[in-house]
Amino acid sequence: MRPTDGSTQDPMPAAHTGGHLAAVTGLAFDLDGTVYLGERLLPGSLDLLDALASAGLPFLFATNNSSKSAEEYLERLRAMGLPAERERLLTSNDVAIARLRELGLQRPYLVATPTVVATYRSHGFAPVEDDADAPDCVLLTFDTTLTYAKLRRASDLVRAGLPYLATHPDTVCPTPEGPIPDCGAFIALLAEATGARPEVLGKPQPSMAVAIEARLGLPADRIAFVGDRLYTDVRMAVEHGFVAVLTLTGEAQRGDLPTSPHQPDVIVASLAELHALLRGHGTLP
After folding, report:
1. Which of 156, 182, 200 is the last residue of a domain?
2. 148-159 and 183-194 helices cross at what angle (nearest 10)?
């Protein structure tokens, strides 16, 4: 780990070098910027996930990215050669579906891609698309097919006082060409237009953490959450009692750490380094 002040000493506490991993018996991984970037697997991803699968250790992919259906994610993961089953994938859409059911909401105005709209339909919801129909809430997702017409309708409905939710707070999504606007940026835009902010789901909210714990069937202190964002991945892990692992392959960089209120337990340059740490602790052969 390189110092940032020109000194020869490692500025990071010893806890950041992997000691917390000794108790870990299950892992959850962010996707964008952690396992892959665009269509490219990041260093060490395939070897680590194959090793976990071979060792029979439970692991899970947990992503805030709500621009794709679960089926699209699984297809992408399998095309990359990664072990991927539906029970190993948790998205912010899964959390949003559970929350809508909890609130008794059935007719969301969905700011979403067509495949995500179809996902909600397949779960028994009746997303409103026709301007003549009356929705019972507004749900904002990472809509990569976003149009001005969608923003205007969402803005009108939010100002009218409908329940307003958003799948996640990420302001940007990492891509090989650089970061692109994500759901958090859309939230900020609508806040300027309406003065309202939504109930935000996904990481770092407790609902996502509880879902991860339930899927893995482990207590929080036995789970390592691995991600590339300080304000979602690391924050959720720290606040819920997971071992917080920051990988420097996506959004967060080492220079962001001194000013972040959310500090990871472990910092790795890539999943290849995490694999080596887990072997060192005897978690993996």
Report:
1. 200
2. 50
